[in-house]
Amino acid sequence: MTAIDLSDFDVPGRGRGLLDVIQWRYLLKLIVRKGTATRYRNSVLGWTWSYVKPGVQFLVYFLVVGIVLGLNRGVENFPVYLFSGIVAVNLFNEAFGNATTSIVENSSLVRKIYLPRELFPIAAIIVALIHFVPQLAVLLLACLLVGWVPSLLGLAAILLGVLLVVSFALGVGMFFAGINVRYRDAQNFVEIIRMVSVWASPVLYTWTLVKDVAPSWFVHVYMSNPITLAVEMFHFGFWDPTASQTHGYPDQFLLHTLVAIGLCILSLVLGQLTFRRFERTFAQDL
Question: Are 92 and 230 in contact (CB under 8 A)?
């Protein structure tokens, strides 16, 4: 019997996970282009909605929390404080939601051809980043109007905040994207997380209010949340330079940052493992 050398052949339908994205980057560009092109298709306002929706959200929160509840009087430049937090949480919510539904929304491709399935949640994250840019532009304009002067440390904090949000959204997004193909209840659970995320981070209030009413162990857990850290990084980079007196930061803020980074890495690992586990039956489940 003639021996056949199979060393040059790959096992069908198996890849290297997130590492395959680099090799398939051209296809990733096409998926991203499709996501941005179809976002506001047949819409009269088009990309203007990227400004309108966060603007309305900010106005509602500012009127209710800032004016009615009076936090506007206790936080200097409260509009900048509020909008910088909203921008960070909106990035997470859109990236997380898009990544969760990315496989189901591209079911026709998943069923017909093989390609690294991780391309879809990563493309969803990139699309969320693209729609994050208009909100960031409005925030920058508002900061400049109240005398914002950027610093290298502040810009580094903003970049770290974006990285925390993106990596955490990708990790938990892949986790729920894999589960959502078989169990559509996962999408409803994700909607609950997105709804709570605004209140679970110091967006509409300061972290010191949590410190005043919660035990110290809860404050440590609260501040180690990657989204909470990202919001505080945005506050440090955008709001702090415009305020004469800030609300300060916990004594163990560096430790909280390291824990948040570790949680982001853990979410990426668990998300990838879970995604690969359910990936085997994507075509059948869809």
Answer: yes
- Specify whether the CB–CB gap between 259 and 221 falls below 8 A: no
Angle 184-97-112 from CA coordinates, rounded to 5°:
60
CA separation, residue 233 to residues 26, 140, 154, 246 (Å)? 33, 15, 8, 13
- Taking the chain (286 residues) in consecutive chunks of 10 residues, what is each chunk's mean pLDDT? 58 59 75 74 63 76 77 80 90 91 83 80 90 87 83 92 94 91 85 89 88 90 93 91 79 91 94 87 71
pTM of this prediction? 0.86
Q: Distance between CA 39 and CA 131 in Å, rounded?
A: 10
Domain chopping of the chain, boundaries: 17-34+49-285
Q: For residues 135 and 263, what is the distance between their CA atoms, to the nearest angstrom?
A: 26
Distance of CA 222 to the CA centre of its chain: 18
